[in-house]
């Protein structure tokens, strides 16, 4: 490859010859166009070749005019020389000036072209002036390079699509930082900070890269010159900054021209933007022209379409669109060049210049760099970009496109992405971070003489889960324990994470697998797969203490005071029945029913029979003898009613009390805990359960958090195991709020613990990994596959109900102390019994008085004497028989003895008759065992 200075001399000689011949060569009118390139052959030579051979191709097809290039060379910083060269081109009659590519010198060229109304066509990035664009200042300038604001928006859209919450910008010039205006503006005040770092001329970038690495940043935007990109990435690889979780976006549109062969197998994601489709026919045809043209000139030039610089392609398109404008305007009127002078007092302007520029602004063309559309200011506001990604097999590969209308649009399918990720997993070894906690990860129990190392040291649900995923995706893994044993919480004071989350942020692990809950706060720091287990918060509490077996537990359905009242009532009713029966004449019966003229009656209701009647009634068995008088029957009836109620209540509660335990406190939900202060409750410090109560807006949970936070001593624990132990030792004075999966594991092995209430929320456990991990989709797919095949259910059953003592506890329903009946429950029965007995006593007195009156009439004595005699007889409990016709003289003590002797002498001979009478009486009563007694009408 040779320099372009010699080519410029040849072209200048051609122009001199053309002008000497009157501007006509081979019957075509010659239209000179000027170009200014910088004296940096490595950067400008390819652009000059593109410029020359684009003109050559135009001339091959044009019949009426021929473009003649006039090239000048200047230094990028030499403004004075640049001004002189532009004036030289104007004096030679150029109809347009292309270039230069430097912002410093391009402004001078544009100013002169505006004054002379010569079209000025540029192909480099040009910032918007601080004062804003002015139509007159931009009247003669056409820029084929993407407009600054639109290009910045493309980069911003890409960052948003990649979900970069934070990133670091590395730039090398103020011009480069200006190109990222929109990127800086998308950052809100509540977003993670953006770091901006500038590099100088020092070729050692390692200190800067190490600082970025120590900050934990993994997203980097490179806004530096193309010649610095490869060296910076090479040094990034040396300091372990080209790993799989680092991502780079290169803003230069010439990134595809760099040879990344030595970095193709790095594990980081390197993304760049490209203005052209390197596989299109147009660019292949243009490259062919360049190579063939240089070969004719005996110069060697080789470039592949994939490595064509953006500026070269833009020069090609610039010549093409300018030639189109000349052609179409020349069809209406002949365009002729004019020699113009910069220093002339009578300044002349080229009359065709403004019309050509206006035509180019409204003309739509399609070139190597895609559609070419300009706005009113001559800026290229609409264009297409290819989003390319460095791959192992093909170098840069197109993965998406961008345009101002549709934004980012991916060209590869999800299947292709998934296949590429799975392929990259082959033979990869993941570092899997976890923590000890049953049943997710536990140390394996060693056998005698056994030495365990590596993954063989552990067992548990997490290990088998990641092992199943590794078999599906084909990767290897190594389990490591997080040093502090924590899940991961954010400290708002230090603004740092701890636990598993910190391990991932520090790139010390690729995955984190345990009972790690997916929360919003953690999701801002790391990524999660789909949940492999769903759960919620519940309450761990101690079961009621099992009472020792008691031979007298059958007494439990009734309290002690009820039993005392019942015994008192039993004795009272028996005595009352005995007294009333002796006072009631109906209960004095003829002992010999077959002898109608018997002059004695007997009363069978001694104290023993009265006690037996009431006992048989309360036992539900009745009695074969029954009272006759209304009062005694009423007493017996009320007692049977009382006995029926008490017996029903007793039998209804006896079975429950023989099988159920007593509770000294009733807690059935979180609301019950929140309403009381006797029983303390707590959570694991720094866990997701603690965060749930801290951030909850529900009043009950807010009260619970306030209670936990203010409790002394502290109710918080370091682990679930510590919380479990506190519940066991707390003697039902401490409850522990924890995730239902861990709670279920505990209650399967600790039979004195139980779950109280339902779930307070719903969430899931997920596998955590660094943000934007390329393996998230693949691992989530493997989790879903295991779920659909039932393997996740099998794993949970194995580690919850089978391994290490699982399944040994049978759940017993919680008892309730409300089953014990007190006097408040059955006191009404006693009131009814007392009222009935009072009524019976009154009726008995009335019956007694009525009998006294009858005796007084029959015996012709005074009522008072009859009352004394009957009362005296009734109170003599030793007498069991009574003469039918009693007299006052017979009521003496001797008379009583005589009557008793006669009665006893007759009793032996008539015993059979009495028993027969009792049997007939008993047989005449129906359902005596069920209702207690039946009124006898005899």
Automatic annotation (TrEMBL):
Domain annotation Ionotropic glutamate receptor L-glutamate and glycine-binding: ranges: 439-506
Range of residues in the leader sequence: 1-27
Subcellular location: Postsynaptic cell membrane
Key words of the record: Cell membrane, Disulfide bond, Glycoprotein, Ion channel, Ion transport, Ligand-gated ion channel, Membrane, Postsynaptic cell membrane, Receptor, Signal, Synapse, Transmembrane, Transmembrane helix, Transport
Ranges of residues in domain Ionotropic glutamate receptor C-terminal: 429-802
Region feature Disordered, mapped onto this chain: 888-913
Topology term for the membrane: Multi-pass membrane protein
UniProt-listed InterPro entries: ANF_lig-bd_rcpt, Glu/Gly-bd, Iono_Glu_rcpt_met, Ionotropic_Glu_rcpt, Iontro_rcpt_C, Peripla_BP_I
Segments crossing the lipid bilayer: 562-581, 638-658, 826-850
CDD domains in alphabetical order: PBP1_iGluR_Kainate
Disulfide-linked positions: 751-809
Positions bearing the site annotation: Crucial to convey clamshell closure to channel opening: 667
UniProt-annotated site: Interaction with the cone snail toxin Con-ikot-ikot, residues: 785
An example Gene Ontology molecular-function term: glutamate-gated receptor activity
One cellular-component annotation, GO: ionotropic glutamate receptor complex
Residues that coordinate or bind L-glutamate: 517, 522, 688-689, 739
PANTHER family in UniProt: IONOTROPIC GLUTAMATE RECEPTOR
Family (UniProt): Belongs to the glutamate-gated ion channel (TC 1.A.10.1) family.
Protein name as annotated: Glutamate receptor 1
């Amino acid at each position: 490859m040779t320099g372009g200075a010699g080519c410029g001399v040849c072209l200048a000689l051609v122009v001199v010859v053309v002008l000497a011949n009157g501007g006509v060569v081979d019957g075509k009118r010659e239209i000179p166009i000027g170009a200014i390139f910088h004296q940096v052959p490595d950067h400008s030579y390819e652009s000059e070749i593109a410029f020359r051979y684009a003109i050559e191709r135009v001339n091959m097809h044009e019949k009426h005019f021929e473009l003649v290039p006039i090239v000048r060379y200047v230094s990028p910083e030499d403004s004075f020389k640049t001004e002189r060269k532009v004036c030289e081109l104007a004096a030679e009659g150029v109809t347009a000036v292309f270039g230069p590519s430097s912002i410093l010198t391009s402004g001078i060229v544009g100013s002169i072209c505006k004054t002379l109304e010569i079209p000025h066509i540029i192909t480099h990035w040009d910032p918007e002036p601080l004062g804003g664009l002015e139509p007159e200042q931009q009247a003669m300038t056409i820029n084929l390079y993407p407009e600054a604001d639109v290009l910045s928006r493309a980069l911003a859209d890409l960052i948003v699509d990649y979900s970069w919450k934070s990133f670091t910008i590395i730039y090398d010039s103020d011009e480069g930082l200006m190109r990222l205006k929109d990127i800086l503006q998308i950052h809100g005040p509540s977003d993670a900070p953006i770091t901006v770092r500038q590099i100088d001329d020092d070729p050692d970038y390692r200190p800067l890269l190490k600082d970025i690495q120590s900050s934990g940043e993994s997203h980097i935007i490179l806004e530096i010159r193309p010649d610095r990109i490869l060296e910076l990435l090479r040094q990034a690889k040396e300091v372990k900054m080209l790993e799989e979780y680092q991502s780079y976006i290169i803003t230069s549109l010439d990134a595809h021209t760099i040879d990344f062969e030595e970095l193709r197998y790095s594990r980081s994601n390197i993304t760049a933007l490209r203005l052209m489709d390197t596989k299109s026919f147009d660019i292949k045809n243009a490259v062919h022209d360049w190579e063939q043209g240089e070969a004719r000139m005996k110069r060697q030039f080789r470039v592949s379409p994939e490595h064509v610089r953006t500026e070269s392609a833009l020069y090609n398109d610039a010549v093409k669109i300018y030639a189109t404008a000349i052609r179409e305007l020349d069809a209406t009127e002949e365009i002729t060049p004019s020699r113009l002078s910069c220093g002339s007092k009578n300044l002349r302007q080229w009359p065709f210049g403004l019309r050509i520029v206006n035509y180019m602004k409204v003309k739509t063309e399609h070139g190597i760099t895609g559609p070419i559309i300009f706005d009113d200011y001559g800026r290229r506001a609409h264009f297409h970009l290819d989003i390319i990604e460095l791959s192992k097999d093909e170098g840069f590969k197109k993965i998406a496109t961008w345009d101002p209308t549709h934004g980012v649009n991916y060209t590869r399918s999800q299947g292709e992405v998934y296949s590429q990720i799975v392929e990259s997993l082959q033979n990869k070894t993941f570092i899997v971070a976890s923590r000890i906690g049953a049943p997710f990860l536990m140390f394996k129990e060693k056998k005698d003489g056994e030495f365990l190392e590596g993954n063989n040291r552990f067992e548990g649900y997490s290990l088998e889960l990641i092992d199943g995923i590794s078999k599906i995706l084909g990767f290897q893994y190594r389990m490591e324990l997080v040093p502090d044993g924590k899940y991961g919480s954010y400290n708002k004071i230090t603004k740092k994470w701890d636990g598993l989350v910190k391990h991932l942020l520090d790139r010390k692990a690729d995955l984190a697998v345990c009972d790690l809950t997916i929360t919003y706060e953690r999701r801002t720091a790391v990524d999660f797969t789909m949940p492999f287990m769903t759960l919620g918060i519940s309450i761990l509490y101690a079961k009621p203490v099992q009472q020792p077996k008691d031979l007298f537990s059958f007494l439990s359905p009734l309290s002690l005071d009820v039993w005392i009242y019942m015994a008192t009532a039993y004795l009272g009713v028996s005595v009352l029945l005995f007294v009333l029966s002796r006072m009631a004449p109906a209960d004095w019966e003829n002992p010999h029913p077959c002898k109608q003229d018997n002059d004695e009656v007997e009363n069978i209701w001694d104290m023993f029979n009265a006690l037996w009647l009431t006992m048989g009634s309360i036992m539900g068995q009745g009695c074969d003898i029954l009272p006759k008088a209304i009062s005694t029957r009423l007493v017996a009836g009320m007692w049977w009613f009382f006995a029926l109620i008490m017996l029903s209540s007793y039998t209804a509660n006896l079975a429950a009390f023989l099988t159920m335990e007593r509770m000294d406190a009733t807690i059935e939900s979180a609301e019950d805990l929140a309403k009381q202060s006797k029983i303390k409750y707590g959570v694991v410090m720094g866990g997701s359960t603690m965060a749930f109560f801290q951030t909850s807006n529900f009043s009950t949970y807010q009260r619970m958090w306030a209670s936990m936070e203010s409790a002394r001593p502290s109710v918080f624990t370091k682990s679930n195991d510590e919380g479990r132990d506190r519940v066991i030792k707390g003697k039902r004075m401490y409850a522990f709020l924890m995730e239902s999966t861990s709670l279920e594991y505990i209650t399967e092995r600790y039979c004195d613990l139980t779950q109280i209430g339902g779930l307070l929320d719903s969430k899931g456990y997920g596998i955590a990994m660094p943000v934007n991990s390329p393996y998230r989709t693949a691992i989530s797919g493997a989790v879903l596959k295991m779920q659909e095949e039932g393997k996740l259910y099998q794993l949970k059953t194995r580690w919850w109900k089978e391994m290490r003592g699982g399944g040994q506890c049978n759940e017993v329903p919680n008892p309730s102390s409300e089953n014990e009946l007190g006097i408040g429950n059955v006191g009404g029965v006693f009131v009814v019994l007392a009222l009935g007995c009072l009524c019976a006593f009154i009726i008995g007195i009335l019956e007694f008085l009525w009998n006294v009156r009858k005796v007084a009439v029959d015996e012709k004595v005074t009522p008072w004497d009859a009352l004394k005699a009957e009362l005296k007889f009734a109170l003599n409990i030793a007498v069991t028989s009574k003469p039918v016709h009693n007299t006052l003289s017979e009521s003496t003590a001797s008379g009583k003895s005589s009557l008793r002797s006669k009665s006893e002498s007759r009793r032996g001979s008539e015993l059979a008759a009495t028993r027969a009478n009792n049997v007939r009486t008993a047989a005449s009563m129906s359902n005596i065992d069920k209702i207690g007694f039946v009124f006898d009408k005899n």
